């Protein structure tokens, strides 16, 4: 089971496979209460395993725990937020 790490210093959520980064989602902090997802990337060797979804899930959990709203600008994250209503409580409107 892949483990999602939150790298606060580099403003990203990531999944590693040993020393390689298998998947990464970066964000910009617009304010302490608003994070903007600007990029999601899954290494081609790891695609089809749901790693992008795991990154979005981890960020949503973090947002809920910390009173943060999310503005998804990258196409992948934006599509997930549009499709899954369970994320809407942290969606910046």
From TrEMBL:
Q: Where is the N-acetyltransferase domain?
A: 1-93, 5-92
Which UniProt keywords are present, listed alphabetically?
Transferase
Q: What is this protein called?
A: N-acetyltransferase
PROSITE patterns tied to this protein: GNAT, GNAT_YJDJ
Q: Write one Pfam family the protein is assigned to.
A: Acetyltransf_CG
Annotated source species? Paenibacillus apii
The record's section on CDD domains has:
NAT_SF
Per its UniProt entry, which superkingdom is the organism in? Bacteria
MF terms per GO, please? acyltransferase activity, transferring groups other than amino-acyl groups
